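Q: Start with the shorter request: fold the first protein.
A: Done. Sequence, then structure:
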Amino acid sequence: MTRVVVVDDQDMVRQGLRLILELAGIDVVAEARDGVEAVALVAEHVPDVVLMDLRMPEMDGVEATRHIVDAGGPSRVLALTTFDVDQHVVDALRAGAVGFLLKDVTSESLVEAVRRTAVGESVVAPAVLARMMDHFAASPPGGAQEPAAFAELSAREREVLAMIGAGLSNAEIAEALVISMATVKTHVRHVFAKLDLRDRAQAVVVARDAGLHA
């Protein structure tokens, strides 16, 4: 059974999330009101998924995510917020969150996202990636610097990463480069392995931070 810790500073929100998840057969092992409690409870219960609100008192969800990920445990953080994509969401992805949902997500989509996160998938909807593009366009990074690991990328792999950073799907990349989908997937797999990327959302952040442009 999937085990979850729910983190939110509002009692009614936590209770609602618990009810939705438990009705679907998911075990909510603990609830936290802020990031400090979240870090302690995750260390105690080692859940499969941490459903993490981003804006909270004491310690916000971004900092709590960073602590949980840095601890090196198996728990995966799924960020949850009432806000549209902003710097908090980008920072949460940088901190190690593997997905992002808005709080107006349907019950069915929430349950599906938690289950997918628990088995190692990343849950960031295409619409969220599109809003991330808008966020980056509105606040382009200054003084972009490439990580040392970029030296391991081939010219084509850099090109593919830049296109991921621009929000293109694998199909769109294949069309733009006039290569097969299988070849695109191979390039993407190599990029993720060489840069130790978890998912496409993290690849978008890395590409944008490095100043890559498609």
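Q: Next, the second protein, separately.
A: Sequence, then structure:
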Amino acid sequence: MLRVEKLKVGDLPPLTFEVAASECLSVEGPSGSGKTRLLRAIADLDDAEGYVFLDGVERRELAAPEWRRRVRYFAAEPGWWAATARDHFPSDVDPARLDRLLDALGLGAGLLDQPIGQLSTGERLRMALVRGLIDEPRVLLLDEPTGALDAQSRALVDELIRFQLLAGRIVLLVSHNAAEIDRLAHQRLQLKALAPRPAVPEQPLRDGSAAR
């Protein structure tokens, strides 16, 4: 169970909700409503007041790397810091698991050793999913996982997400694809657009000039 209590993200009101094992919660709202900031706060990548529990353990009770191993954020534009995809996997990676994940997403093993810059956008996005799933995190925070993929690749990713849910994992999904949300989500969290702050009028000083 992932439980969020009074989590304060940006200008959003404090948020409280729960997501059980094998459930997918879609986080919805217009651009700028705080969807990505919410996922990053849950992953403890950005500071935020409030509490986040996973199976009864609050995020501050664990070292940050251990929390992020269990509760993993998948960015819409994943970063790469080494020459090839293989360089991003631990040396003791289970080769059978790696092969299964690559196959599930339609990726050939040969792509592991190609320079990252030679992979297509879709290949990099799917490879980032493999990278993030290889050590089996409990919670997947997916930020537009299929936004830049073609229909065939989107179907593969959707099927992989379903498999992760069947395996008992917890998924929070940000997606602009309404059909994808309908297929995967068990519950929904709607974030409202933040109202623009009214301009503060300049206050005149006693001599009639305006305060700066």
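Q: Describe the second briefly.
A: The two ends are 51 Å apart (CA to CA). The domain at 22-33+70-190 is CATH 3.40.50.300 (Rossmann fold).
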